[in-house]
Amino acid sequence: MALRLGDTAPDFTAKTTIGTINLYDYLGDGWGILFSHPADFTPVCTTELGRTAQLSAEFARRNTKALALSVDPVEQHLKWIGDINSTQNVSVSFPIIDDSERTVATLYDMIHPNASATLTVRSLFIIDPARKVRLIITYPASTGRNFTEVLRVLDSLQLTSQYSVATPADWVPGSDVIVAPSLSTEDALKQFPAGVDIVRSWLRYVADPAAQQQT
Ligand code: BEZ
Q1: How far apart, in whole angstroms, are the C-alpha atoms of residue 39 and residue 135?
Q2: What pLDDT, in 10s, does the model give residues 111-146?
């Protein structure tokens, strides 16, 4: 059955460009992004892996490790990394899984037979430190992912894991957030002493508590 939000991310051990790794050991007590690519030496995938490498400091700042996957063998991945590095002006250091047996692709339902019988679509999973799947997004092969959005969701997930808040449409870190419906206004006023903007009894805003902490 397909994975759903809140499910435990299936563990696996796989051959990768940095050696054999076990998912849970690789992630340790941090967050992870597992994302698949249709094939090696393809232009859109090349830009996506380049962008992930460019953002490596941003992922590290969020205690998040990237783990890419393509159904080609590791020898091909290693040659492709050379091309990614030279064409995208980066240094890819995160692992790319050799999923030539489609083991991980099957485990994570990354092959959508009506899109392609053999190639993975652009699946992306955010996995939290409790090993739960917190985000699933699926893009078609023809559309490269927006990694700024992936970072934004990570920020939202990490913030909402720490505080009783939710993030509104198009939220970006530092802008106001919504008080979780489960929190009473009385408790919200205690938790957010800087103030609660009560637009409706069920629509209440507070300043981003993570940004407040930094000031
Ligand atoms: C690409 O990554 O460029 C790509 C892969 C498969 C189909 C179309 C584009």
Answers
A1: 23
A2: 999 999 999 999 999 999 999 999 999 999 999 999
- SS3 letters across 117-153: CCCCCEEEEEECCCCEEEEEEEECCCCCCCHHHHHHH
pTM for the structure as a whole: 0.95
Instruction: Tell me how many domains the chain contains.
Output: 2
Domain boundary among 144, 176, 202: 144
Residue type, 202: W
Distance 36 CA to ligand 1 centre (A): 12
- The finding on whether 95 has its CB within 6 A of some atom of ligand 1 is no
The answer to whether position 189 is within a domain reads yes
Pocket test for ligand 1, best of 42, 110, 120, 122 (most atoms within 8 A of CB): 42
Is 205 in the same domain as 105?
A: no
Q: How far is the CA of 38 from the centre of ligand 1 (A)?
A: 6
CATH number of the domain residue 182 falls in? 3.30.1020.10
Q: Which domain holds residue 106?
A: 13-144
Q: Which of 45, 96, 121, 157 is catalytic?
A: 45
